[in-house]
Design brief:
mainly alpha, two-stranded antiparallel sheet, 4% strand, disordered C terminus
């Protein structure tokens, strides 16, 4: 029986399966030195370029400004806030003061405001106002006359053959 080695070979040709030549160490070292030299030259050129640009930047700030650019103008209102958190804190402090202190809401009309906690305590003690009219199915704002108009004309007539006091039967009568 023959023994095969490698890719389809029969192994009888004496091949040992690796390269017998050594890598050229001298060529590898020269390549590394050449690469380092190229990198060093490029770094020196870039450093020189940056120094030249710094000098030109200091010399010609006024000269390089575009003549086409519009002069600075303040943007129109409303402008963005520079520190929105400060105005938000001031607004929250004002709202907190309004919600937790006594004060006039409308002094001419005699309307005052009370702290929320006090208002909740008063509602818990006294309860909410109750509508005393029996059989009134109108919403509370309609009972007070807010946003409603008085009814005019006659109510809609009942359809013939129906009795408004009895529910209407749909379908056959079941006894």
């Amino acid at each position: 029986m023959t023994h095969s080695v490698g890719h389809g070979g029969n192994g009888s040709n004496g091949a040992s399966g690796y390269e017998h030549r050594e890598a050229n160490l001298k060529l590898i070292v020269y390549s590394a030195i050449g690469l380092a030299a190229v990198v060093a030259v490029v770094m020196v050129l870039m450093f020189g370029t940056f120094e030249l640009l710094k000098l030109k930047d200091k010399e010609g700030d006024e000269e390089r400004a575009s003549h086409l650019a519009a002069p600075f103008q303040v943007p129109p209102d409303p402008r963005l806030e520079e520190h929105p958190w400060e105005s938000m804190q001031a607004l929250r402090a004002q709202e907190e003061h309004t919600l937790t202190t006594y004060g006039w809401q409308d002094q001419k009309a005699g309307v005052v405001r009370i702290p929320i906690q006090k208002a909740m305590d008063l509602i818990a003690q006294r309860g909410l106002p109750v509508n005393t009219q029996q059989g009134n199915n109108q919403p509370a704002h309609a009972a007070r006359g807010i946003g409603s108009r008085p009814a005019t004309g006659n109510p809609p007539a009942a359809q013939p053959g129906t009795n408004p006091g009895q529910p209407r039967n749909q379908g056959a009568n079941h006894e």
